[in-house]
Amino acid sequence: MRILIAAGGTGGHVYPALAVARSLRERGPEADFRWLGGRRGLEASIVRAEGYPLELLALRSLRTVDTSVHTVLDPIRLGASYPQALAKLARRRPDVVFTTGGYLAIPVIAAAATLRIPSLIWEGNLVPGRSVRASARMATALAVSFAEACARLPGPCFVTGTPIRSFAGRDRAAARGALGLEPDTPVMFIFGGSQQVRRLNRAVWDALPTLVAAASVVHMTGEPAYADALKAREALATDARGRYKPYPFLRAEMTDALLAADLLVGRAGSSTLAEASALGLPMVVVPYPHASAHQVANARALAEAGAARIVADQEFDAAALIDVSGLLARPAELERMRLAARGFGRPGAANAVADLVMALAQRRPLPSADAIERTSRAAA
Q1: How far apart are CA 146 and CA 15, in angstroms?
Q2: Going from the N-terminus, what domains does the chain have, and what CATH number goes with each?
Q3: Which end of the chain has the smaller Cβ count within 10 Å, N or C?
């Protein structure tokens, strides 16, 4: 079986694709995987490290928000990427194409449609992105994290949830030990996603002396800000420094950070919300205000379920962070949030998406919506 995956840009696109690839590999070790990515995204480092052959198209899978020369160049790169994708798919002739959306999906799904190769798009946001909306009609089927997204998309659409990494074989005590955390001290994990978030970083450093008085703080800073984080740690009292654990980026340690935490503070990316929900981890979400406010919609869904509190991006500062850290001293409220998060979670999402990919690759009828629902809700 030949499977082509197109996923790139942020971790929110790459990691769900990796989770699905692992599920597919478990059921078909002989499968031949190929990966298409773009320029500038995280796929260049992450995908190759996982052992998947990676080829890059001309487009940038991680684009800038601000107006620049790339505002003009990106459409040109997109146009050039379609014949590239067409040539690669014609040469490889995969049995199925799977993509996690983003800019990369447009030329790859268009090429698959031209060559009549079955394809599946996964969309992680409650409000589908422009790239997914542009390519959805060319796809054979769609998988989504939120039921509301299906109403905005054409064709066969299945609610799978967001594919997440495996937490098998790890527990809370082992995770805290691996990170060097005190076993009985509350843990706050502050995580801005796969990109540096200056607003979150500044709030942490300004609030740090107060935070570490009552909790341990695990903080992913992004590479550019890591040196400043080390300076902030050195400025703490000697006996408090061990309670601040900054990391420039989290790969293998991400599993331990999530398992160790009592409270997650961060952005409202689909992967972050899905992993926290699967673990029953209460959340304080600070939605990214751009990108058509996708994260605002994602966060609202969890807040309405009782699993999260929302702080607007422009309101998030040291005072706001200190305020939400007070949740750690209210165990009854945290427990209510944990239960709500577990009810929201779909720990079997990767298996559900893999079921759809396998059906398309083998030219079988797609599973029923009820079957996908059961698989996605089951423990991975």
Answers
A1: 18
A2: 2-164+347-377 (3.40.50.2000), 172-344 (3.40.50.2000)
A3: N
